[in-house]
Amino acid sequence: MTDFSRVDLGHINLRGSAEDSRFVDGATKVLGQSLPLAANTLTQSLHRIYWLGPDEWQVVTESDRAADLVRQLEAALAGQHVAINDLSGGQVALQLTGTDVPELLARACTLDLHPSLFGVGDCAQSGLAKTNVLLGCIGETPVYEIIVRRSYSEYLLRWLRQKTHSRAGSVSS
Amino acid sequence: MLLIACPYCGERAETEFSYGGEAGIARPKDPHALSDEQWADYLFMRKNSRGMHRELWNHAQGCRRWFEVERDTVSYVIKECYEIATPATSRDNQSRAD
Amino acid sequence: MQTNRLDTGGRIDRSKPAGFRFDGRKLQGYTGDTLASALLANGVSIVGRSFKLHRPRGIVGSGAEEPNAIMQIGNGASTCPNLRATQVELYDGLIARTTKGWPGVNYDIAAINDVFGRIFSAGFYYKTFMRPQSLWHVYEKFIRRSAGFGRAPAAADPDKYEHLNAHCDVLIAGGGPAGLAAALAAGRAGARVIIADEQNEFGGNLLATAATLDGAPASDWVQQTTAELSAMDNVTALPRSTVFGYFDSNFLTIAERCTDHLPAIERSGSRERVWRVRAAQVVLAQGAFERPLVFCNNDRPGIMLASAVSTYINRYAVRTGERAVVFTNNDSAYQTAIDLQRAGADVAIVDSRRSSAGATAAIATGIPVLSGHVVVDTVGRKGIKAVRVGRWSGDATQTVDATITIDCDVLAMSGGWSPAVHLQSQAGGRNEWNDELQCFVPGESPQENRVAGSGRGKWSLSDCLEDGLGAGKDAASRSGYTPVDVEAPNVDTEEPASMEPLWRVPASQPPDRCPKQFIDYQNDTSVADVRLAAREGYCNVEHVKRYTALGFGTDQGKLGNINGMAVLAESLGKSIPEVGTTTFRPAYTPVTFGALAGENVGELFDPVRTTALHECHEAAGAPFEVVGQWHRPWYFPQPGEDLHAAVNRECLATRNSLGIMDASTLGKIDVRGPDAVEFLERIYTHNIGKMSVGRCAYGVLLGEDGMLMDDGVMARLGEQRFYLTTTTGGAAAVLSWLELWLQTEWPELDVFLTSLTDQFSTIAVAGPNSRRLLMKIGCDVDLDNAGFPFMSVRDAELAGMPVQLFRVSFSGELAFEINLSSSDAPRMWRTLMQAGEEFGITPYGTETMHVLRAEKGFVIIGQDTDGSVSPVDAGMSWLLSKEKDFLGKRSLSRPDCAREDRKQLVGVLSADGTTVLREGAQLVEDPHARQPVPMCGHVMSSYYSACLGHPIALGLVAGGRSKKGETLYAMQSDGSSTAVKIVSPVFYDPKSERQND
Amino acid sequence: MKKYSAFSLLRNAFSHNRDWPEAWRSPEPKPEYDVIIVGGGGHGLATAYYLAKEHGARNIAVVEKGWIGGGNTGRNTTIVRSNYLWTEASLLYEKSMQLWEGLSQDLNFNVMFSQRGVYNLGHSLQDMRDIERRVGANRLNGIDAEVVTAAQIKKAIPIINTSPAARYPILGASLQRRAGVARHDAVAWGFARAADALGVDIIEQCEVTGINRENGRVTGVETTRGSIRARKVGVVVAGNATVLADMAELRLPIESHPLQALVSEPMKPVLDTVVMSNAVHGYISQSDKGELVIGAGIDAYNGYGQRGSFQTIEHTLEAIIELFPVLSRVRMLRMWGGIVDICPDACPIISKMPVGGLYFNCGWGTGGFKATPGSGWVFAHTIARDEPHDLNAPFDLRRFETGALIDEHGAAAVAH
Ligand SMILES: Cc1cc2nc3c(=O)[nH]c(=O)nc-3n(C[C@H](O)[C@H](O)[C@H](O)COP(=O)(O)OP(=O)(O)OC[C@H]3O[C@@H](n4cnc5c(N)ncnc54)[C@H](O)[C@@H]3O)c2cc1C
Ligand SMILES: NC(=O)c1ccc[n+]([C@@H]2O[C@H](COP(=O)([O-])OP(=O)(O)OC[C@H]3O[C@@H](n4cnc5c(N)ncnc54)[C@H](O)[C@@H]3O)[C@@H](O)[C@H]2O)c1
Ligand SMILES: Cc1cc2nc3c(=O)[nH]c(=O)nc-3n(C[C@H](O)[C@H](O)[C@H](O)COP(=O)(O)O)c2cc1C
Ligand SMILES: [Zn+2]
Q1: Interface of C with B in 675-704 (CB under 8 A)
Q2: Which of the residue ranges A40-49, B75-84, C116-125, C931-940 would you say has the lowest mean pLDDT?
Q3: What is the number of the ligand closest to the CA of D43?
Q4: Which of B10, C745, D105, D118 reaches 20 to 30 Å from D295, CA-CA?
Q5: Is residue A50 part of a domain?
Q6: What's the gap in Å between D75 CA and the centre of ligand 3?
């Protein structure tokens, strides 16, 4: 069984140098949690922070907190070479729950989502059904979060709807 | 379907990447000092190596970083993937146009 | 009547009869049958006609190698062309039709071709039908009609297909003894294993033999092993799954057939699934193909591979004849003789070898053996009736006289075995000729794989098992697992396996005179054809393939290729390895287009991108224009309006009062950092440093070749912060262009680029009442000219929503572009629409936008440019900074780019004042000139301008700027021509007073 | 050359086909030739043929590293048309078209040139503008071309999906009726046979490994079968162009990429014409043997392997099913690749080189099969006269310096 739903969240894109402690400390202070510095990982406590690249993070938070966080980050990091963009209007988050989710995603995603390799706290940006997505494992059940650009979200939802209804014929002989 | 090791994200399927052609072609410092022929060389002439090829790839569906790959253009076997070589770290100093 | 069905044995389920139709005849078989075994059980001998000569053909093989039994299965929209009967599982209600022969396979008029067989020799088509050329299409029609096997359905496919991406430590292709053993070894070591076999059951050859393992039927071991594998979490066992492709970086593809074996009513879910597997290690255990023997008339129905005859007996309980001759050059076929004898048939063996261990054993069981003899020819047009046998001298260049005739109704032949090196070759591996085994065996491979079992010439069962275990262990340990010891079952009786090559049986006449000796059954390629090709100079094996069609058929030469190469080698006086093989390519067996496309069809073919305002536009009844992946509202028709009426109305409303449009598809990029100015200076053509905060500028960027690549508005939001817009189509390309330069060429510049395309929606309000509208809904910044001049930007609150407000205009009117979070956009749109009612606010689409901008002479990159238009050509010299370098600048001074007579942007007016020119129309000076008529330009954009009351167009004309006032002719694709006048491209408000208002 | 005809077929049938002569000899290389053509593809063989036929050259060799026609000539989707956009290109391809129209007779070898028409589909308003522009240009250049509507397309090709609800609905097409397909292998063989009959030595299994020069002039080539002297050397090696240019220390604006194609199993006729679509990325025809011949896209990366990426094939078949939903149950028999020589402006280079006596003909990329006879014809002229024919003068290497590119991406964006 697979369940999916759209969740209304705040999205912030954060750019800065992981090697610059002023930036890392400043951001950590505002966010109240550490930035994931290891590739393909995320941290979650107050917010969910995804590693996107060596100098790029995505902060996912409650929808009404994003604007405030952006302001705080801007204030705290003022004068530094950073970029902070509120993308809450430009991204859509979906959450999928169920043991079948890895197989469902494997239908159109080339990542190896075997639970031993992609567990809670792991994330990756990749392709899913002709869209670019940010994918994270955020709960044990497992729960996956998929973040996709708004203009592609209708397509992805259509794909999900089609896939969760159709199951292929039996595999065993 | 190549398996390409993004220096930042790790091994991913070819479909996550876009290709950027030969690596290490430095943009001339003063284009206007070049003859038309030299400029054409920079614009259009590529090694197109048959064998080991130093090339650019972008992890388009991932971290959006450009990086370099050394790949055999006959066997398609990838020898190495690494971060953009800066002029100082460049492994190949034959960039022609300068 | 299943006349050939044995009472006992086999893996069919006699409690589950399955009725089926074959060319309309009602027949019956059992679940567990293939269509082929059921046909044979029913005594059906002719299942097809050959491609060229239309000779009657029967079933030869029992699997992927079958060249003859090519069927049309099913009816209507779910009919399937060209399925091999040997691979079609029987189910109740199956409908099969033969695909060749008119009126039918049994009586085929075109069989007359056989009589003229010699005319239809290799290269036939190339030598005739040349005159007159004008008649070729007539000849061709006949040729086309007689070619081909099955038919594509006439209606769209009702089935669904899917893809599955998988990863494993060890992928095993083939589930015979070698493959199963490998799976066991790798699985027990803990590796993630995928094992795929194309058949409905695992076991490979073990399902088809009478051999025993540890004292029990081999199938018991298969069952145990399969059960153990299925119980392992780390093993995925896929029956009905063909590994059809082996690509770079150990990427393999598997076609799994999910539903075709079920009666129609039991089918659900996807019909087929393509597994796209990335494997760390691969074990290839594909087995081997038995080779046919080549002699005169070796294609009669009833002539089969020995292993197939055994398979039909042991696996399907079908004895394909009562009086059998086994013709062999090796020991493996002796097992077939024994199988036949046990099944109650009379058997005689013809063995080309003078003596063999097999013969000794057979004679002991009372089977007559003619050693040192060969089958020279056969009798029986529609089914074999007898074989003619002669003494074999061992020298293929001599003729052989047939002295003995043996009546028979089945001939089981075995010319030895060829390992299935297909996947290993696809992977880039080499094949090496093995003189002892007389076959190609896999050599070195550039990828992480190994071959096990008969796929590398291990003929005995115990060797196959051991080899499989070894391969499985090796693969597991190379992917990081500690191998565990697995014991192979004991093989109770091991058959000897010696052979002597016999590539072509000479007849009583030389090869070019004797009756046809077929090599490739499906394409009717005979020994004479191959020899003729060689004689005519088509000596390379690849030429022979293409000239004679050897191995070109749907079986891809699985049966005939090696024999063909041997015959070629003989004609050229070369060795077989010198001749070499042709290239093995995917698909190992054919794969459905639908499966390859997977779910990416119909509504999932390509994403449709829509703006946050899409629903508003749908509600307003707007048709959409396809712009790349986007759907943009094209126009907003009122009841009864067509495109033109709507556009005229929208244009007038905007010019006279107020229009509103959704410009959200524009690309938007946030540029930040201490070096933002420097970075943009290098990319854009205008002077960035001179822009003050709060100002906007129109900017273009060029490719390094100097040609226009994209354009947009650039706003300076702060000292170190810019906001760029790009064209809709160029958004992704521009961002990656910027990143490319930033990351690879100027990594020292501190700049961050972030796409805001989806984050911000853009609503343009244009027209003399646009300022009033914004004031009405509440705007916290001063909107008048002094406070907020044209080409500036402000952070504002509009109707209570935070926005970035641009005073820019793509229509030439007083206009504002509201950029705001896409979450707020629908609310903003509705607010504006409501508040705008008093001004007659009119939503407009892309078409009106195009008209309005064309009236102003604004170009659209991609419509008015085609990659060969420079900014100078487009009249944008004013945008090119003289003070700095920028990408593409150097190219502009190349001789061809500096020419005065390059095509330049102009306005074009039809002389009659009424004709709306076709977009794309060519412009010429002299419409009556002789062809080729020199063309001096073309029309890119053309509209009726309601505001001006006449049509307008933009064109590119050679030296156009100095041709103002001149007359040219627009030549349209329908042959019509219209006189036009070259004018300035700015038709409306040339002083641009309105936008500055 | 013994003539091929229905009569000769009959006569030979009676003599058990034992008297057919060799289509071309397999001579040992001579020590010296007037002209050596490197590359035994269609273009190289045609060049040799026209050198002999039109320019009376007799002492010519074609040197091929593998087997003739084994390069892109033997692996293309065989589409022949001349409806290019720019006059320079149109006239060159049209010259070729005219040669195609009499080629079987000229060569006395049936190359099965089948003028069944080619449709280039338009799926957007911009496609339709481009079609109008190209068709208009074609007509002014004297090349047959027309714009057809979706309804006309549906009538001519009943299995095509013209539904306005399609993801990329078909809005119309350009149609060139004289365009069509030809039997690719036969083109190589026919030119080889006819050239051989005029005395050309066709030397297979002979790879050129060096280009010898003295005082700025070419003197011959090194090969795997020894050195061969020559006064002039014409190089026509498609995807290997820069490899050969390197041998003469020259640079070319050419990059080699894998381009793929596939065939279905042979079926009864379902498609009597050729359909190409740039927007959805696919092109398709049905061969006389019954296979659907389908062209896929080019792989983005440089490659000399005659194979490409699997996803490229998947993408093409998505497009084919989008255009022809009834083909979903048809099966792919075989897929393969060729190494195409991509030139920045999607036009060829047919040019003298800075080394005297050395000529290159390359850059045909994804679309040079259609040009085979014309390319050979102008290249022969260029070599024989040491100056380009008017038709190929614009395709000079110098255009990359001056900027006078002939950008045919619009007409050639998809391979064909
Ligand atoms: C999949 C595919 C589909 C295509 N579809 C079409 C189409 O539909 N229509 C169309 O017009 N065009 C098409 N093309 C393009 C077309 O095939 C080529 O442009 C054209 O065939 C090139 O012919 P050629 O003779 O120049 O090259 P080739 O046929 O490649 O010949 C070059 C020869 O040079 C030889 N060679 C290379 N190096 C050496 C050396 N060092 N020494 C000696 N010999 C050497 C090679 O072995 C080869 O035989 C397609 C191409 C591909 C790959
Ligand atoms: N006596 C002889 O000369 C002789 C010769 C050959 C084989 N044999 C016997 O045959 C058996 C060979 O065992 P083996 O395991 O090597 O081969 P096998 O033929 O038993 O099994 C190979 C399996 O792989 C499957 N297969 C092939 N290609 C495939 C693909 N691309 N995708 C999926 N499945 C594919 C086949 O359908 C088959 O089930 C042994 O019992 C051996 O003794 C005997
Ligand atoms: C127009 C055309 C039609 C083809 N038809 C077939 C075919 O019917 N059967 C087949 O096996 N291959 C067919 N091929 C593919 C060739 O077998 C071969 O794959 C291709 O020429 C490339 O050569 P290679 O695979 O030997 O490298 C065809 C190729 C072309 C260009
Ligand atoms: Zn990455």
Answers
A1: 704
A2: C116-125
A3: 1
A4: D105
A5: yes
A6: 6
CATH topology of domain C1-158: Ubiquitin-like (UB roll) (3.10.20)
Residue C974 CB coordination number (10 Å): 14
Q: Which two tokens stand for residue C197?
A: 């076999």
Q: What is the DSSP string of C884-895?
A: S--TTTGGGGST
For the segment B72-87, what is each residue's pLDDT rounded down to a tens digit?
999 999 999 999 976 5
Q: Is the pTM of this model over 0.95?
A: yes
| Partner-chain residue, chosen from D303, D310, D402, that has the shortest CB–CB distance to B76 | D303
Our mutation pick for probing the ligand 1 site, out of D76, D191, D408, counting the most ligand atoms within 8 A of Cβ, is D76
How many Å apart are CA D373 and CA D111, to the nearest integer? 12
Name the residue with higher pLDDT: C509 or C737.
C737
Cα–Cα separations (whole angstroms), residue C159 to A23, C83, D266, D325: 55, 17, 22, 11
CATH class held by domain C614-665+759-852: alpha beta
Domain covering C161-288+419-478 assigned CATH 3.40.50.2000 in the classification: no
Q: Do the bridges between strand A143-149 and strand A48-53 make them parallel or antiparallel, or are there none, so unpaired?
A: unpaired
Report the DSSP pairing between strands A143-149 and A91-97.
antiparallel
D404 → chain B, closest CA residue: B40
Chain B residue nearest residue C427, CA to CA: B75
Contact B19 D256 (CB under 8 A): no
Asked if residue A78 belongs to a domain, the reply is yes
Contacts of B21 in chain D (CB under 8 A): 255, 302
Interface membership of A34 toward C (CB under 8 Å):
no
Determine which of B1, B4, B12 to mutate to test the interface with A (most A C-beta atoms within 10 Å).
B12
* Cβ-defined contact of B44 to D301 (cutoff 8 Å): no
At CB < 8 A and 24+ separation, what contacts does C859-863 make?
Answer: C859/C711, C859/C905, C859/C954, C860/C727, C860/C941, C861/C700, C861/C708, C861/C709, C861/C710, C861/C711, C861/C727, C861/C730, C862/C727, C862/C729, C862/C730, C862/D126, C863/C940, C863/C941, C863/D126, C863/D129
Q: How far apart are CA C274 and CA C257, in angstroms?
A: 9
Give the pair of three-digit tokens for residue C827: 């609310």
Q: Count up the domains in chain A and report the number.
A: 2
Looking at the predicted complex, does its ipTM rise above 0.90? yes
Q: How far apart are CA C769 and CA C779, in angstroms?
A: 15
User: Does D338 contact ligand 1 (Cβ within 6 A)?
Assistant: yes
* Alpha-carbon distances of C823 from A57, A72, C761, rounded to whole Å: 22, 21, 9
Domain-located, residue B7: yes
Chain C residue nearest residue D401, CA to CA: C894
Atom of ligand 1 lying closest to residue D78 CA: 8
Which of these three, A86, A115, A144, is where a domain ends?
Answer: A86
pLDDT band at D410; cut points 50, 70, 90: low
C973, C974, C978: best to mutate for the D interface, most D CBs within 10 A? C973
- Helices and strands, number each (H, E), in chain D: 12, 18
Residue C740 to residue B1, Cβ atoms within 8 A:
no
* Strand-by-strand arrangement of the C346-351 sheet: C303-305, C410-414, C323-328, C346-351, C369-371
Question: Side chain identity at D86, as an amino acid letter?
Answer: W
DSSP assignment string, C883-947: SS--TTTGGGGSTTTT-TTSEEEEEEEETTS---PPTT-EEES-TTSPSSPPEEEEEEEEEEETT
Give the integer Cα–Cα distance in Å for D288 and D380: 32
